[in-house]
Amino acid sequence: MRLRSNVSHHLTKWRVPYLVGEIADTTLATDLDEKKQLYAELQIPEYWVINVRGRQVMAFRLQENGKDQQCTHSVALAGLPIAVVINM
Asked: What is the dihedral of CA 38, 39, 42, 46, to 10 degrees?
């Protein structure tokens, strides 16, 4: 994802969050592609995508090799089963 050049980002000023979530209604494809790649590059350990239309929560955990893998339990939220969140 290309950051707009007219926006100032201070990515080294603040701590990287443990968890980022996106609520996807019309942006599901972007959230599962460009944003997922961006958050992996920023080394954010956990990324959730809430698919509003599909009533589904997808969670991804960053692995040591820099790739993300879909997960069923949260590390950032102390073992919370992702299935608990799905019942929206």
From this structure: -160
